[in-house]
TrEMBL record:
<protein>
    <submittedName>
        <fullName>VOC family protein</fullName>
    </submittedName>
</protein>
<feature type="domain" description="VOC">
    <location>
        <begin position="9"/>
        <end position="134"/>
    </location>
</feature>
<dbReference type="InterPro" id="IPR004360">
    <property type="entry name" value="Glyas_Fos-R_dOase_dom"/>
</dbReference>
<dbReference type="InterPro" id="IPR037523">
    <property type="entry name" value="VOC_core"/>
</dbReference>
<dbReference type="Pfam" id="PF00903">
    <property type="entry name" value="Glyoxalase"/>
</dbReference>
<dbReference type="InterPro" id="IPR029068">
    <property type="entry name" value="Glyas_Bleomycin-R_OHBP_Dase"/>
</dbReference>
Amino acid sequence: MAVKPIPDGYPAVTPYLIVHDAAGAIAFYEQAFGATELMRLADPSGKLAHAEIKIGNSPIMLSDEFPEMDHRSAQAIGGTPVSLMVYVEDVDSLFNRAIAAGATEIRPVENQFYGDRAGTLADPFGHVWTLATHVEDVSMEEVNARFSAMV
């Protein structure tokens, strides 16, 4: 049997987060988002060279920062230009759970013109997450009309 070029359980694009204190980040993601740890590989100093978690059906890879390899955390570079979008069954509940676990609200949970109920937060490691529940099917024509009316 041939080896699959994309392993089972992995989408074509998988986020890979570099964090300061990867073990702490895993604990936070478990508490805040219900993540499940899949694996971790630590170097002799105890730093995580590679780890994998799953949130819902989505794997996320992460590691500690290794500046000598030019792998720096969002905190080390003063923020992140990337946001992660996570669809969940109950955005209000999970958003509040993440805040209680130590996340910081950036944008409160509200119904959006495009049919999602969504809010945005920053985790304690400098990464930005938008959590959403799809609450209304909206045609592109209606999305454009609502957007035009909004701006």
